[in-house]
Design goal:
Blueprint lengths: L1 H37 L8 H5 L1 H4 L6 H36 L2
């Protein structure tokens, strides 16, 4: 059973990595869509955009809003995977300790 829990940990961490990568990809696409909508040259963003992300979501329109929704879904998936990994790690360590 402990091995099964460690497999779940590995799968959850792989899912977290995949969702983090997807979130970064969609975040970059959101910044590009914002630059195109404003007529600015494409850039990778700044500190203000990163810090103000939760406050800017309601003001996004067009393609940027669609990409922003995907970023939020990827962040939720990342957090869910991290919670599953933490819980599975706890189960695995408890099962490994009890079996000795």
């Amino acid at each position: 059973m402990a091995q099964l829990a460690w497999i779940v940990v590995a799968l959850a961490l792989a899912g977290a990595l995949a969702s983090w990568t997807a979130g970064a990809w969609f975040y970059a696409r959101t910044l590009r869509a914002l630059a195109v909508d404003r007529g600015q040259p494409q850039r990778t963003g700044g500190v203000v955009t990163i810090v103000a992300w939760p406050f800017a979501l309601g003001r996004l329109e067009g393609a940027a809003a669609g990409h922003a929704a995907k970023v939020n879904k990827a962040l939720v998936a990342f957090l869910a995977c991290m919670m599953v990994a933490a819980a599975a790690t706890s189960v695995a360590t408890n099962l490994a300790r009890m079996s000795r």
